[in-house]
Amino acid sequence: MRRSGDGGFIVLGRVSLFSDRSFLLRVDSEGRLLWRAFLPENRTGFALVLTGDEAYVVVGDTYPDSDVFLTKLRQAEFARGDVNGDGRINVTDPVRILRALFSGNSDAACRDSVDVDDNGALEVTDGIALLSYLFRGAAAPPDPGPSACGADPTEDALDCEVHVDCM
Ligand SMILES: [Ca+2]
Ligand SMILES: [Ca+2]
Ligand SMILES: [Ca+2]
Q1: Distance 115 CA to ligand 2 centre (A)
Q2: Any residues with CB less than 8 A from the CB of 166 and at least 6 apart, and which?
């Protein structure tokens, strides 16, 4: 656990459900959850370092090739539509968009990736556009993505704290 510049905390942890997954969790100074993100399945995080420029460095090892990784989490690079950051676009992504909208609480670590139609707002139409792309052959979400990481080419009020697949 590390204290972030705004008085909140960022936590590196591990959960065992069906498989071991490392995750990052960011809370504000009141302990409210800002976002959480799972690391890719083949990565186990051991240590978290806060660098002077407000970025995070995660160190760990990879499975099954037992290599070491050290990655700096770059903000603002993402793949549009890959809402859970697992490197794939499948039905779990639009489901997550719609669930977050209807429950009114979104813990997306990268809100830019949720803006599937890139209109600067998170709406039901984003979930529908993604479903249409997956199941009805509609056009792919605008760049960046869904298969390449990049920065948002259009200005908006949305942010992207971390998109784990673009680490
Ligand atoms: Ca996904
Ligand atoms: Ca949108
Ligand atoms: Ca945009």
Answers
A1: 4
A2: 74, 77, 78, 79, 85, 149
Q: What is the pLDDT of residue 77?
A: 82
- 167: pLDDT strictly greater than 70: no
Calculate how far, in angstroms, residue 154's C-alpha sits from the geometric centre of ligand 3: 4
Looking at the fold, whether 115 and 57 belong to one and the same domain comes out as no
> Do 46 and 96 share a domain, yes or no?
no
The reply to whether 97 and 157 lie within a common domain is yes
State mean pLDDT over 124-130. 96
CA–CA distance, 19 with 147 (Å, rounded to integer): 25
Residues 98 and 69 in one domain: no
**pLDDT given for residue 8 in this prediction:** 84
pTM for the predicted model, two decimal places:
0.74
The neighbour count for residue 79, using CB atoms within 10 Å, is 25
What is the rounded average pLDDT of the residues 73-85? Answer: 82
Domain-embedded: residue 109: yes
Q: Domain range holding 44?
A: 2-73
